[in-house]
Amino acid sequence: MNRRDYLLRKIFFSLVTLAVVVVLNFLLFRVLPGDPVRAVIGRNVRISADTQQALREQFGLDRPVFPDQFLTALGQWARGNLGVSWSLRKPVSEVLLAKLGNTLLLIGLGQILSIILGVALGLLAGWKRKTAVDVGALTFSLIAWAIPTFWLGIILLAAGSTWLGLPTGGIVSPSNVGKPLYTVLPDVTHHLILPTLTLTILYMGEYMLIMRSSIMEVLGEDYILTAKAKGMSHWQVLRKHALKNAMLPIVTLIAINLGFTVSGAIYVETVFSYDGLGKMFQTALVKQDYPLLQGAFLLLAVSVILANFLADILYTYLDPRVKAS
Amino acid sequence: MTSTEPLLSLRHLSTEFSTTDGTVARALEDVSFDVHPGQTVGLVGESGCGKTTTLLSIMRLLPVTARITSGQVLFNGKDLLALSETDMRRYRWKELSIVFQGAMNALNPVMTIGEQIREAIILHDLMDKTHANRRVNELLDMVGIAPSRRDQYPHEYSGGMRQRAMIAMALACQPCLLFADEPTTALDVMVQAQILELLQKIQRLLGLAVVLVTHDLGVVAEVCDTVVVMYGGKVAENGPVDEVYNAPQHPYTQRLLEAFPDLNRPAGSLAVIPGTPPRLNALPPGCRFAPRCHKAFERCRVEAPAETDLGGGHTAACHLLEKAEAHQ
Ligand SMILES: Nc1ncnc2c1ncn2[C@@H]1O[C@H](COP(=O)(O)OP(=O)(O)O)[C@@H](O)[C@H]1O
Ligand code: SF4
Ligand SMILES: [Mg+2]
Predict the structure, then answer these.
(1) Which residues contact A53 (CB under 8 A, 6 or more apart)?
(2) Which atom of ligand 1 is nearest to the CA of B47?
(3) Which of A213, A238, B94, B197 has the fewest CB atoms within 10 Å, i.e. the most exposed one?
């Protein structure tokens, strides 16, 4: 099987998954309690029954759920129209896009740092197995992995703002709001330090643990002995033969973690009042803003599917065997 | 038998493993044998008797739990055990190379066959990339693989082809000594024969010295000049194949050969001798073979036999032979 066939198959399965997710996402919000019209007009009971009926017609809620409402929703989603947020009175897609950038910035930084540090630490620990370095790194990682996000966030927030004078929340200082990003970069960096650090520590432990066990397994393989027998130094063996093989599980983990960007960001963004998808999600949940939640769910699902698809593509470059299976 | 100096000479080599339960497994004790240039030496013995450990000790590729406690490994008169790790690296593959048991796992799954062969040539600075590429093609051709398949990955090769590729790789730097650790295990019978034939062809073509680890006494009879029979981490008997096969002196060798040739036993396996090999972390005090030896007597259980020189390069370690020597 060549790469093209492999990719076509993966695309097909991604699309099937997407279809299932779309249907589920539609159904989920039909079975949830609550009357959308009620939510829009709030507690204003004085709106006449006629007006309420007009609103229902406007939202298409008077027609049968299937197929009319479903097909309408499908058509709208396909055009990028995710409906209007009840609480913000703005198109959902607009709200999501505005928050997405902030979240990607935070998660991206956190992921990059935790991958680099975690993988490096895992390599070192696996290589220097059973030494003090290994035990230290292992202890740190287990703690980092087990620690509750909320708790670590609050501790770092308290420590960082008290002793280092770092900002307690937000992305920019109030005085800088609305200015173009590049002019306020130092300020943004300042704000990003603590939430990024929190994310880095949280994810680093996981990457380190996976990398450590992966490299230990790979170093015990026969082809490593072959490489040593060829006369390679430990370092050459590690770089040319062990690393690529040991990185395979990490690629999967990265895909999973990136896919769960939004959900992963909820706690950190809430603790640091960081204006991203996670915080928006939490607010939407509290306010029962169904269209917004539905949009966020859709985005979440699509990003999981996309991340897995990217991992599959990357795999074909890293591991020639996947095409054969 | 040969007048030349040995290419490789093991002198009283002993290797231990420290095990997880805190005991020490004496995997090799006092192992000595010679390999002369261009000669093929068969290394036989039950599973776990120390054949692989012997090869890994020579190449200094033992796992960290293992330690060479004494002895010398003289290669062209130079003790490899006394070299620094950096100097030792220059000997690996360039002078001594090895074909491992399971070719399935001995090749890196994410690297093309061609690259894995070329890598060794480049590593030892033998030639530039263009010449190295040409050499890879020659090597593949020599072992019967179409050079057009050099850019394929190990999983695209059959088991036999992987072992051929492994052999091509082992020859990449023109070593003068090749170790082959059960090179045909896990291959089907037809392919086994082809691989052995290939090894023999190459041995003759390049005048290589080969140490062949095998379970198959028939193969030893066919391709080897001398045979080293190991039992429980020690050399039981060592000598020219003709002599050892016609007149085995050690009771263990005798038992192995009594059942040979046995047409009922699948090729590639040794005769089953009643009893189990010694546990290397709880060795019997005397001769390691005593619990299973049909000729054992009191002295065997208290004192380990020394190696007796039977002349003509034939040696064996058994108290019965010491007596014979004393009588002479
Ligand atoms: N990694 C290891 N750790 C502990 N003991 C080992 C290890 N490898 C080999 N040994 C011991 O050394 C003995 C010889 O093993 P090996 O050289 O692999 O035997 P062979 O190749 O003849 O089958 C085994 O019986 C085992 O007890
Ligand atoms: S020394 Fe004794 S036990 Fe050992 S092989 Fe000879 S006769 Fe058998
Ligand atoms: Mg072995």
Answers:
(1) A62
(2) 23
(3) B197
